[in-house]
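Quick one:
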Amino acid sequence: MKIISNPFELKEQLKGQKGSVGFVPTMGALHEGHLELIKNARKENDFVVVSIFVNPTQFLEGEDLDKYPRRDEADKIICELAGVDILFFPSAQDIYADDEVKIEAPNVRGYILEGFTRPGHFSGVLTVVLKLLNIVSPTKAYFGKKDAQQLHLITLMVKQLFMSVEIVAVDTVRDKDGLAQSSRNIYLTPAQREEALKIPIALYSGAKLIRQGVVSVDEIKSEMLRLLSPLEVGYVAIVSRDFEPIKQIEIGNTIILIEALSGETRLLDNIWL
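Output:
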């Protein structure tokens, strides 16, 4: 495995690459969810690139940029064992200039749900993803369904900017207790983790109600909020897969999403129906 930090060196390295290139962008502190992305990329492509970059532009003032988990040496070993060909490990100075061209998230879908509680977050996400895709020029790029709104907006950006990359959505990986894997889970105390299990319980309950024939969005959300108490809930939302509001459930085109705090740790989860 080769480790590269300079974007231009990486572009030059990939210029003559034959066959398909699979790309997995991450912020490090790799876990089984990231490994599932890498496994899919390895299975479907001739060459695999993983990036590790804690992107400062997607963190708002007062958020956890400085204490975001970093396990650089362990991550390098994980990538090598997973069969990664190139690990792209840039610094902020490698990615950003002093006077930056701005990429803005959509005015509606970029500022609802997580975008409402974190205004400007998705502009930072789309900016760095656009840069990374332009550097790597992959055949396919892999993103987890856990960050469903992010996945949707990246897919939308690729479509609207006529980019030549296929965005591949990969199912959420969960621990045995049902909690969705996240780098931020390490912040949770045992008691907070136990409390956080209310999130998958509420999601499964919402899905069960739908299977039982309940189609009222308000009724399902009300029951989920009851199950989430006393967590501090950012939102419970039921939307179409295009992130449009819906009043009646449509199987095959629905996502149920939760954002909640356990202690001071912000957790996201969802279920696709």
